[in-house]
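Form 7-S
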Amino acid sequence: MDNNKMKLKRGDQVIVIAGKDKGKKGRIIFVDRKNRRVVVESVNMVTKHQKPNRGNQNGGIVKKEAPIHVSNVMFLHKGEPTRIGYKIEESADGIVTKTRIAKKTGEVID
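Output:
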């Protein structure tokens, strides 16, 4: 399997299916295809001790999201967790289109 192929992308609504944040829902804000990890808003929060710098004058303890492995999240389609598949269609004039579909319902995602 090619490590760069991921069916999830930024902006997708997902639910965490394993780990300490199991059951939490959120939107993907960053995708790391190389390490197969995603950052989901308000999930896997960690505290980071930050030195004062130009952007943060005071420094201190900052809470931020940490990456979570893509196998621990599942795509939400109309509020239901589902797997993602692809449908490849070729039109009469030879144009090939590849769309993501929800495996549970067979509906086109985007």
